[in-house]
Write a structure and sequence with these properties.
With about 100 residues, this protein is mainly alpha-helical. About 80% of the residues lie in helices and about 0% in strands. The protein contains 5 helices and no strands.
């Protein structure tokens, strides 16, 4: 269920609808934020949820924290998360002004 919710949230973010993305991404985050969850799965959802928090303006500080935590995980994963790391870095660069 968390995967589907994350995909829905990502699609809504892609349509520039961060307010609408908040609910499915928040639900996915709640489902995945547990000790037995694979770190990569949580990182992907945390990155998307963090992005939604920032882009919606609902909690930019927490959102940036989630994005940065996810970036660290993606960087540690090496080649297997190269695409995700590129996406996060591009997004962060677009907000560095």
């Amino acid at each position: 269920m968390a995967y589907s919710l994350s995909c829905l949230g990502e699609a809504l973010l892609g349509q520039a609808r961060p307010d609408d993305a908040m609910t499915p991404l928040g639900q996915a985050f709640d489902l995945r934020n547990r000790p037995d969850m694979a770190e990569a799965r949580l990182a992907w959802t945390k990155w998307l949820f963090g992005r939604a928090l920032v882009e919606s303006g609902s909690d930019s500080d927490r959102g940036m924290e989630y994005v940065r935590e996810s970036r660290t995980v993606f960087a540690e994963m090496g080649d297997s998360a190269e695409s995700e790391l590129t996406d996060v870095d591009s997004w962060l660069e677009s907000r560095s002004d």
